[in-house]
């Protein structure tokens, strides 16, 4: 370490940027390209890594998805322009095992999974993180919009400065050990426009590239097509029933439905009906009026706790937090009552709609992420 450096560098290390090796997870999109370019221009020892997550020649991939051939090319072009090494790693089998298989199995079990969380917690922050360590890196940086803040008890996870871009919901499962190693240089960036301006300032070829949308391996959001391909014949037809069990119609398989869904039921005529729950064993889709969607209590499992102090030692009445039960929902007041080291009952102050098994329930205290868990059951189940 140089004698003249006694302050922490921008990534929080007590050495010069040149002495700090950082692996940047490069999707080929504008965000992670800017992270890599910015860190390189600050003098860091940058190594770019792009993961090939699925066979982009196969029907699963869509044009413009994060790991299509074009994106690998784009990431490499950024590395060439900025002058740092870039590697493409074949993570297809890991992605298949940790993310795609779970996605298909959960839909078949009547749940509504969030594959981006599974990808972050396994492929990126377990597998890629250990590869980064093997490459001798001091940290792993991504283009996620979320803030990492040094707190009195270690690094904390906070919502991004730009609420419209915030990705904290998808990162709730990041463990304290992982959080110690990862960096999110874009978390404090005010807007995406600012990121694009940085890309243009570095002369990056991806400055105007469109944002990625949907789930990367699901073309055009047609997830049922993907599941049919992965598990041919597994989606079996069944009945659509009302809350009293009266048969209103038939359906081609529970994988086509998600809790809260109103469109595409093909039944009704009267008041609008929503999917209230899915019963995969009986192959039934249960529908009811909107009023039946409200959920006040839910059980969560696989809890990841990022708050100060042990999770199980909650104050009387539980942890008072705000929870998001879907990525699209605003935080709502709730109490989290631990029922084990990694499980809890969540009691919402007001009923929430669209609470689906398989989704994440993320705990917040103001802008700080205190962790979260996977929704296992609701009072409606
Ligand atoms: N195939 C990949 N290889 C390496 N890193 C990836 C890959 N896909 C995503 N990432 C990393 O995860 C971050 C978040 O992924 P996400 O799919 O949300 O990207 P995004 O918001 O579209 O950002 P970007 O503009 O960088 O693609 C990326 O910024 C990048 O650091």
- The CATH architecture of the largest domain is 3-Layer(aba) Sandwich
Distance between the termini: 58 Å
Number of helices: 7
Structural class, by secondary structure, is alpha/beta
CATH superfamily of the largest domain: HUPs
Largest beta-sheet characterization:
6 strands, antiparallel, barrel
Query: What gyration radius follows from the Cα positions, in whole Å?
Result: 22 Å
Overall residue-averaged pLDDT value:
92
Poorly predicted regions are 59-67
Strand order of the largest sheet: 12-15-14-13-16-17
* Gross morphology: globular
Strand coverage percent: 25-35%
| N to C succession of SSEs | EHEHEHHEEEHEHHEEEEEEEEEE
What is the CATH T-level topology of the largest domain? Rossmann fold
CATH class of the largest domain: Alpha Beta
Q: Could you characterize what this model shows?
A:
The structure is a single chain. The chain is of the alpha/beta class. The protein folds into three domains: 17-220, HUPs (Rossmann fold, 3-Layer(aba) Sandwich); 236-292, SH3 type barrels; 294-378, Elongation Factor Tu (Ef-tu), domain 3. The protein has helices spanning 30-41, 69-82, 92-108, 115-134, 176-181, 192-201, 223-230; strands at residues 21-25, 45-52, 86-90, 139-141, 147-151, 154-158, 182-183, 238-241, 247-251, 274-279, 284-288, 295-305, 319-324, 332-340, 343-352, 360-365, 368-378. The strands form three sheets. It has a six-stranded antiparallel beta barrel with strand order 12-15-14-13-16-17. The protein has a five-stranded parallel sheet with strand order 3-2-1-4-7, sandwiched between helices. Helix 1 runs parallel beside helix 2, helix 1 crosses helix 6 and helix 3 (92-108) packs antiparallel against helix 4. The radius of gyration is 22 Å and the shape is globular. Mean pLDDT is 92; it is low at 59-67. Residues 25-27, 29-32, 50-51, 53, 66-67, 124, 142-144, 211-212 line the site of adenosine-5'-triphosphate (ATP).
